[in-house]
Amino acid sequence: MLAALEQNLETSASHPAISVRNVSVRFGEGRGEVTALSDVSLDIPEGGFVTMLGPSGCGKSTLLRAIADLVPTSGGDISVLGRSPRQAREGRDFAFVFQDATLLPWRSVIDNVRLPIEVGKKNGASFDDPHKLLAMVGLAGREDALPHELSGGMRQRVAIARALVTRPRILLMDEPFGALDEITRDKLNEELLRIWQETGTTIVFVTHSIPEAAFLGQHVLMLKAHPGRVKDFMKVDFPSGRSLAIRDTVEFITVTARLRTMLEECL
Amino acid sequence: MTDALSNPVTSNVEPNEGFIHRFGEGLQRSLPVILTAGGLLIVWQVGVTVFNVPTFMAPSPTAIAVALYENAGTLWRNVQPTMLEAALGFVFGNLFAILLAIWFVHSPTAEQAVYPLAVFVKAIPIIALAPILVLIFGNGLTPKIIIAALICFFPTLVNMVQGLKSASPAMLDLMRVLSASPNEILWKVRIPASLPFLFAALRIAATSCVMGAIVAEWIGSTYGLGALIIDATFNFRSALLYATVVIAALLAVLLFSLVSLAESRIVRWKPAASE
Ligand SMILES: Nc1ncnc2c1ncn2[C@@H]1O[C@H](COP(=O)(O)OP(=O)(O)OP(=O)(O)O)[C@@H](O)[C@H]1O
Ligand SMILES: [Mg+2]
Hints:
By secondary structure, chain A is α/β, with parallel strands linked by helices. Helices cover 37% and strands 23% of the residues of chain A.
């Protein structure tokens, strides 16, 4: 019976939060046409943490933006929690974290976190407490600061708190820590894992860093360029759990070495 | 705009202490300019006396001071209409420019259709327009307000359009992910982002609207600083002429300071260049 229960959990856990079917995205027309994505299919499991790696210009941002209804697809289907990207966007199913924190510079930290509460259709949505979220990302006491008074890492934390305020079921992150130094990045990686475990949010996370992709992702999605296609969807498992210390273990280094080889093949 | 105003100015210095502190600091900062101005006045005074320059060409600073004192009543009577015209011209010209800019940003067709006309208006020499407006609207306040407004209008339109478009693509993406309405994007992103651009234009407008009002008063007006300038010139009342110019400059400086004060209260953030 236990086995049956486990099986049950297994199937419900593998029900995809995001399902991408034969999607292609083209920019421009005629001679200037660029095929950013060609026939991409993949499933992102609900509650999963998927990191996305690939050479520059292979369409990682485009894929994430297509899921977020920021870029129209030229073919294929995307379903987000069983709905179209547009419906999902309007229903606040996902939040997006950009590479630069994209805070509104004239708003205080707390007012930036409140922004999603103030705009858009509310239709009875429930929100998380902005103060609590700021405390969760370690910024209690900085509520009234203006963005230019914060460091880059702090600004990115504010952006994460802002993304979480709508209690999204999916978090789409496009190189959120790309501009940060390594120590700050490590710290935010650990915090993000903690937030993921606490909230059960599905996370899709684009990065250029192989160790970051291996450390965070339960799966690593590898894209190859010209045109953008799925190269591999690799499961990453560390039975000993994920703390920064695992990065010096043989298992971890084996994974990163495999990812590096794969990435080189994509070029 | 309400968005930017909603943050009260906070200061961790005691109000009283803060004022004295700021006053001292301000004095220190403006000391060089005070000394330079004082020096120039002394050179002027000495030059006029030593070289025996006739008063109708260049009165000495003391003569101008005397004229300011003796004609205080006349000057005060005439500065009022000019100030009113300049202020109303400032308000209407800028308001119209701001509304037009908002319309342009909402409708690219409107921009294509109307922007060239605005450029044409800009190309008309305002001084040449003044007599026409006086013919149409008579000798009242209206033509002067219109000219002051026209002078303010174009720089503000250009800056405001640029300011409304200065919101970064990432900010607009963010608002789209949040399914914000065009109205919300306007009030929460575009207008706050435009304020530094707007104030740059308003500072220019603050001085040019005074000029517009004065130029308009040259055409057959019987009141205002412009009329006083014409009158003093034709009667060879050189000291009064200079005194009027000083008052006109003070009026412009007053408006400029008001705009700067408003800007320092409203625009407290640094542009997102560092991000
Ligand atoms: N708005 C756009 N208009 C035209 N072409 C675009 C646009 N956005 C992306 N592209 C093109 O699509 C391709 C994929 O771009 P994308 O930004 O998705 O790559 P990426 O994998 O995110 O790269 P990076 O790792 O450098 O961020 C590139 O060739 C790019 O030039
Ligand atoms: Mg990218």
